[in-house]
Amino acid sequence: MDTLTRRMTRAAVWSADGIRIRDVELPTPGPGELLVRVDLATVCGSDLHTVSGRRPAPSPSILGHEAVGHVAAAGPGAEREIGERIVWSVTATCGRCGRCRRGFTAKCEQVRKVGHEAFTGDWPLSGGYADHILLPAGVTTVTVPETVPDAVAAPAGCATATVMAVLEAAGAMAGRRVLICGAGMLGVTAAGACAEQGAEVLISDPHPQRQHIAARFGATPDPGGRVDIALDFSGSPDAVTGALARVDLGGRLVLAGSVTPGPAIALDPEAVVRGWLTITGVHNYEPRHLIRAVEFLTRTTRTLPWPDLVAEPVELAAIGTVLQPLPRAVLRASIAP
């Protein structure tokens, strides 16, 4: 293609040397692929860990895996049409391997991930911190009603869908005592979802500002005592140990925050056996969870203060100002390319 007729877009390309706004050629979507114009991207904590060096990632790359946008172009056989407003999954899966056939597509043997791929590879426009993103076949997409604001919809593809997977693993909520450890974006989202399902929700977090935010989503400060279900989003070994000790007969502990290496914790097998306890982990999610996330956000758009969790967006050129820790009262930064 002649350089004078090339169609270009902008992207924030991260590397160990920093972040630089670059012009990137717009690809033509292939079979099953979608080119999406990004309306808003939110900043997940894992991207902050990448930028700070706490999490390994391909370099250079375009980060960002929580976003909402409109389809700008669709390849042959794509499931969405131009103009549709969508959110999308973190994972691109093959659908054929043993893990996919078992229903663990998030752990596909050939998985590729939005916002986690090398800019120098065959999928350079893979992250949400850009004017456009290319979604390959194997990425789940869900349409979002226009009544759901961008700041509410964008976290669906990571935080909200992950919470839906955690709640599925936790089982029935109505009338249960539920302890949530960690009042970040996932913990607060879980508080709203558990409360909606009729649970008594207790929140544990060392920061009073975040406990106050969780209270607006139906949680009360944790007074201690036995619980039926414990959900850990903190990743703190002490929090996990403490939660496990409090799970009552027949209860469940679901771990979702322990995503980096850490010290092992003690486990008393006899207590697990005699207490009929279930301990399980959740990492990423399945397509059904993204669907449930959009349904949940659509139902609660007007009843829960979702927009208050997300800071006012900055322009793409100012992305460096938000790829850093935020005040505790702000759970998500956002970027409007």
From TrEMBL:
<comment type="similarity">
    <text>Belongs to the zinc-containing alcohol dehydrogenase family.</text>
</comment>
<keyword id="KW-0520">NAD</keyword>
<protein>
    <recommendedName>
        <fullName>alcohol dehydrogenase</fullName>
        <ecNumber>1.1.1.1</ecNumber>
    </recommendedName>
</protein>
<dbReference type="Pfam" id="PF08240">
    <property type="entry name" value="ADH_N"/>
</dbReference>
<keyword id="KW-0862">Zinc</keyword>
<dbReference type="GO" id="GO:0008270">
    <property type="term" value="F:zinc ion binding"/>
</dbReference>
<feature type="domain" description="Alcohol dehydrogenase-like N-terminal">
    <location>
        <begin position="30"/>
        <end position="142"/>
    </location>
</feature>
<dbReference type="InterPro" id="IPR002328">
    <property type="entry name" value="ADH_Zn_CS"/>
</dbReference>
<dbReference type="InterPro" id="IPR011032">
    <property type="entry name" value="GroES-like_sf"/>
</dbReference>
<dbReference type="InterPro" id="IPR013154">
    <property type="entry name" value="ADH-like_N"/>
</dbReference>
<dbReference type="GO" id="GO:0004022">
    <property type="term" value="F:alcohol dehydrogenase (NAD+) activity"/>
</dbReference>
<keyword id="KW-0560">Oxidoreductase</keyword>
<dbReference type="InterPro" id="IPR036291">
    <property type="entry name" value="NAD(P)-bd_dom_sf"/>
</dbReference>
<dbReference type="GO" id="GO:0005737">
    <property type="term" value="C:cytoplasm"/>
</dbReference>
<dbReference type="InterPro" id="IPR017743">
    <property type="entry name" value="ADH_phosphonate_catab-assoc"/>
</dbReference>
<keyword id="KW-0479">Metal-binding</keyword>
